[in-house]
Amino acid sequence: MPLLLAVLLVIATVPAEAKRPPAEPARPPAAEAPHYGDRPEAAEFVDAMVERHGFERPALERVFRDARRNATVLRLIAPAPSGFKRSWKAYRARFLDPLRVREGVAFWRTHEAALERARATWQVPPEIVVAIIGVETIYGRVTGDFRVLDALSTLAFDYPRRADYFRSELEQFLLHAREDGADVTSVRGSFAGAIGLPQFMPGSIRRYATDFDGDGKIDLRASPVDAIGSVARFLAEHGWRGGEPTHYPARFAPGTDPAPLIEAGIEPRFTAAELAERGVGSPAEIPADALLALIDLPNADADPDYHLGARNFYVITRYNRSSFYAMAVIELAEVLASAR
Question: Which GO terms describe its biological process (predicted)?
Fold first, then answer.
């Protein structure tokens, strides 16, 4: 018998089980994250929801037996470690990238009619609305994959430094889900509980979201037009002033110490004349009655960037309470407007 044929016959007679690699030892199942059904804080919260809003106790108790503590949420929301040096230039680079610019221009072209309607209704420029949606979710590409119920329960009951805020948002989420007929266990969002293309927190959804596409329902997760109208309405109701700038360049007289003005905060409260008395001016022409704040954008070990923030700059920080965020939105908006 030829050698090759003999080898093939031997292989053919080997049982199939012997040809398979040995099975890996079974791994023990991962421990399930603890739920909130037995937590006294959650029980108190249920009591309040039943009393204030007429929720059915058994149904709400089932919800919290399903709500799971999420350790990743706590890790992501934790403050930066001691010694961390914030850098505006590094932050800026994350959001003024080719993808956001390309997709932003496409989003603007696709939804130009809705953006112009929002401008006419609320006086908010299209580029600002587009930039916010771009910074938040890259126009709906990244809206978060955390169960909002888990995220908000974790932060409400296991994050003491902001527990009051997140308990309020958990309350708003349950109310929103009831009004919307949504399954509270199925809604997905960010690790902080923000939802949809514009990443509205539940309280903002109930206060500012709008059915801008006119289909009879508000859907920030699937309707870009609803997202456009809702962002514009949010800014308008926080005091956006149509036709006014967001900021001016800052200039310092020699020897000026900016620290007292920085400590005064980002809410505009100084006129240009009052800033000039403190050694701060601008090469731009500023209306005499305009109120301004000195905005500093640290750059780690390099010199900070400074600007004079006007009312509209402050309004953007009501969306996300960060000067870095507001300036990223403004600069992305400028790039998008130029790229069109």
Answer: peptidoglycan catabolic process
Annotated domain spans of the chain: 247-309
Burial of 222 (0-12, 13-18, 19+ CB in 10 A): exposed
- Rounded Cα distance, 314 and 245, in Å: 11
> What three-state secondary structure class fits 133?
helix
Considering the candidates 136, 237, 277, 285, report the single residue annotated as catalytic.
Answer: 136
Task: List C-alpha distances in Å: 47 to 94, 151, 229, 327.
Answer: 43, 21, 36, 43
Annotation says 136 is catalytic = yes
Q: What is the pLDDT of residues 184-199, one digit of tens each?
A: 999 999 999 999 999 9
Judge contact between 153 and 32, C-beta under 8 A. no
Question: How far from chain centre, in Å, is Cα 268?
Answer: 24
Reading phi first (left if > 0) and then psi (alpha if -120 to 50, else beta), residue 19 is in alpha
Q: Model pTM greater than 0.70?
A: yes
